[in-house]
Amino acid sequence: QVQLAESGGGLVQPGGSLRLSCAASGSIFSQDAMGWYRQAPGKAREFVANIGSVSTTNYAGSVKGRFTISRDNAKNTVYLQMNSLKPEDTAVYYCTLRGVWGKGTLVTVSS
To answer: What does residue 24 show for φ and ψ, rounded to 5 degrees?
Structure first.
């Protein structure tokens, strides 16, 4: 059974950067697509980015050009590099794989 654990969240000032990690354990295959979603207070969960087996990537329009998703198949880990952070990026960030969700990591962008 797949388990996912996110890390790397925290408090950052506007314009700052953070790198989130999602470590997967269990039956993981390099061809599995992995993704990041986020949920801001009082809002629905929304798509952020995903990455496919050959590192094809997709991004939400609101983060394109600022966020970069990558993966290390040897470590069963996917990353989300977040640059030029804005207060509206404040949310709990979740990774997902084959319908399984992690518990999330909180990102707060505030001065």
So the answer is: -110, 140
Pairing verdict, β 105-109 and 91-97: antiparallel
Q: Token pair of 71, please?
A: 């993966």
Conformational region of residue 34, where left means phi above 0, alpha means psi within -120 to 50, and beta covers everything else: beta
For 17-67, how does the pLDDT look when each residue is reduced to its tens digit (9 = 90+)?
A: 999 999 998 877 777 899 999 999 999 999 999 998 777 999 999 999 999
Helix (H) and strand (E) counts for the chain?
0, 11
* Pairwise CA distance, residues 19 & 9, whole Å: 8
- Give me the DSSP letters along 81-103: EE-S--GGG-EEEEEEETTEE--
Report residue 42 as tokens.
């009082």
